[in-house]
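Deviations from the work plan: none for this task. Representative record:
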Amino acid sequence: MAENKNMKVVMDKEVIDRSLTRIAYEILEKNKGISNLVLVGIRTGGVYLAERLKKKISSIEGEEIPLGVLDITLYRDDISISKKKPSLGKTKILFSLDDKKVVLVDDVLFTGRTIRAAMDALIDFGRPKMIQLAVLIDRGHRELPIRADFVGKNLPSSLWEAVTVNLVEKTGVDEVIIEEGT
Amino acid sequence: MKMLLTGARVIDPGQKIDAIMDVMLADGKICQTGVDLLKSVKSKDSAKTKVIDLSGMVLTPGLIDMHTHLREPGQEYKETVASGAKAAVAGGFTSIACMPNTDPINDNRSITEFIKRKALEADMANVYPIGAISKDSAGIKLAEFWDMKEAGAIAFSDDGKPVMDAALMRHAMEYAWSLSLPVISHCEDTNLSAGGQMNEGYYSTILGLRGIPVIAEEAMIARDILIAEFTKTSVHIAHVSTEGSVRLIRAAKKRGLKITAETAPHYFTLTDEALQTYNTSLKVNPPLRSAADIAAINEGLADGTLDAIVTDHAPHARTDKELEFEYAANGISGLETSLGLSLRLVREGVLTLPELIAKMSLNPARILNLPKGNLETGADADITVIDLQLPWTVDVHTFYSKGKNSPFQGWEMQGKAILTIVGGEIKYADPRLNL
Amino acid sequence: MKFDRKDILGIKDLSVDEINVILETAESFLEISTREIKKVPTLRGKTIINLFFEASTRTRTSFEIAGKRLSADTINISASTSSVVKGETLIDTARNLEAMNPDVIVIRHSAAGAPHLLATLVKQSIINAGDGAHEHPTQALLDMMTIKEKKGTLTGLKVAIVGDIAHSRVARSNIYGLAKMGAQVVLAGPATMLPRGIEQMGVQAFTKLEDAIVDADVVMMLRIQLEREKQNIFPSLREYSQHYCLNSRNIKLARPDAIVMHPGPINRGVEISPDIADDLSRSVILDQVNKGVAVRMALLYLLTGGNE
């Protein structure tokens, strides 16, 4: 997919897969198994990653774990000042979060505002025992005191660079690219 | 003081005159019409004669609006006799007949006299009160026609409150006939029109407004024609708005009945389609109808079924119109747009200019038995001068009428009264005339 | 996302795209009402005024719940139309409300066009919650959402609307909406309830219930206003119900999987026989109520823009 000179592929299919496998093991290690463990993917990129993590964890443990889908639009802190309303996706968390260990999954961790919104949303679904965060890319530039528990790759970037996670489910190819912003 | 109006195209339907001529006025009367009257003036008393060059203009008998609503007494915030009479001359009308639906209703001598007195004080257009048919226009008891006639009433009508009782209408026609005064009937079956807001049809359906069916008007016209025929009297049908009404009146006239009828500019200019924004300035009674009705009104005007064009000038204050459509008052402030809208009929080929002038002066005068509407020597010097070409834009804020309620706001017009003379005196002169 | 309307005055004004955006947004809102904590912070600090000039429990409550679940402050004003008689016009009321700077005004009024008048007067967003016999756009949207959920699509469906079409804003809004979305709409009612020119709206009208509901995918029964009896629109409820009540007999004419709708409140045994109204395999009346909150949440969400 990388076409122009200012674009650089920083993770390819294999690297992404290996990172996710490692994260799956780290999640199991940290949580000592899958008891009370649930995954919640943040729309849209986080959902595909969460599905992959679920598959990996299930094949390791031989047991399915619950997976929820979260759209954080309604919890965004810029919703009341944006002129036009962003499209809404459906939230689907069909299980209680009370006393669950929730692993929140997203593709890129940047300012931290999305994660803040996601945590607020999760609290509305019950009282989790703890919330952990798994991301494929941490590109820095946090604006809120938030850090990830599981990181695929730390990617130092400048503010004017764009980091894009392409996934097979969405764009037909697995890769992470970084490019100069215009 | 004499006045000589020179060089205008003089149209006098009564004498079948349509020619470039001069008109000499003296002592409030027309004293001479002819060619080259200027010569005779110069030789004699030129200093005492005011000469106005009207080359390129049209000079007609003073226009007569036989259907106006002045709101005095009672609703002076909407219009007074004075403001209405001023608006009349600004619109080219030298005489207006005012409907009795004031507050209190003009159903007795004292109100009639009051209106006449106010008109005299205003000293603008001639104002002819129309008396109520029934006491308080309640449709129950006949009002004192004879008394009102002596006070100056020239016709009787319960306009706005249709006479539902056929027996009362019969007696009104008979009694008025014995006084040689006409009855003007607002034809509306109020059971059929109950709660109605606009013409019943596709547009009332999609707007969710209660409709007023055409039969509410037509059924009553049929009734009144039958009463006039049976009692061998006459009736004048007010504000005709439907195709069926035109058909009924045409047939009655063909049978030789003494039926006359009028319509108003909005009924040949606008349709109910225009109501889609709930614009209350379009709310009138009878309501704006369909394109087919407009076509029939035009035919009726052309073939003489409809004798007169009236304004149905119904001034209202903003507070009467800036309301939910249902609660808004009916009516259009029409005195100052009527001529402009009617001249469109001439450009569209519906009427010739002399025909239009007849419907706005001679015919109303005949229906109301007024010694007006013509330019014969010795007639009252009521004259309207029209610039057929003058382009202008309707701006309600410049209306002399207190009623700024007009759906024609912003319309581009062509043709306007630029000089209005009543009883030999100039009552209105357009600034562009540079008198 | 394509949605930059200030007001929702009627379905007539909406494009197919706009209707789709509203319905899709509403679908996302459905889930919130199933949560333990039925509230999202989206409209925190926004003020919504429910200005009801006509008695209504259902619609007003639905709007109120919708606003509250979005964390907006909702204020209900039950103004009597008699305040007009007292001298306070809609214009006065509107200017007063405007001065308090709400974000959305939801208005129900017995006079058709009242929301349009309000929209020209104030800068706030106006949502028409029913105006006279004109439109009831949120009802039509929730009806379309219900049908879409049950049937998967609106396109190509046959929808029969039965009852007092002449006085029904629900019928008008649904006719506009369903026609735009590609459904075939047929109407039934005695001729006194079929307004003049209705066919020009692109519908077929029948005087017999049976003629309209043949092969229908959806049968929508309208509420009969009891006071219409006095206007001689129909002789008696007894006679009306004998000929225009949907029952287990005549519903067999519709498609076997036809759903039954009613905007509520039902006059049981007048518009719909109790066994049909309570047959949950057919009757989607409570689904309609449920969708109502989601549709209204969607509209509040879409209309409350940021500071320009």
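Chain A touches chain C at residues 71, 74-75, 79-92, 96, 120-121, 124-126 (CB under 8 Å).
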